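Moderator note: this is an archived Q&A kept for reference. The question asked for a predicted structure of one protein chain; the sequence and the answer are reproduced below.
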Amino acid sequence: MIRIGIIGQSGELTPDVQQLAEAVGREIALKGAVLLSGGTNGVMECASRGAQEAGGLVVGILPGDTLDMANQYIDIPITTGLSFDYRSLILVHSSDALIMIGGGNGTLGELSTAYLNRKPVVILEPTGGWAGKVRGIAYEQAYLDERKSVQLDYAQTAKEAVDIAISRSDNKN
């Protein structure tokens, strides 16, 4: 199964971002892919809810040693014993492609990690945060630097984001 990682902010979300994150999760499930995330709240919880309600499989890569941070929509919680920053490395390495939804500083770090590891990333621009800013600061609007390690993709809808992520996945079936 293709594994699609979700990166985005934790905490409070606008209703529009909540709906888009849920729609991304739903689309991932409907395409038969597995949703991976950091497993906690915010974008991760909304995407997990969308995937689980559509009958999909949801994996949460959790910080720390306990399951208490997992949101209620996680089917398979994986504790890492690591901080938030380091568990993100596991999320990126375990994903065939990633979708960026909104995001703050932590999400920007995950984007950079994905780029360094040549993982495809689809940026859902209407979700704001760093997702709404990357194109404007990216090298040639498509790369994080002049090495052009991997091209960033942009989407305007949940369906478009998932379709691109699956097509760029390094685990196509």
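Archived answer notes: The radius of gyration is 14 Å.
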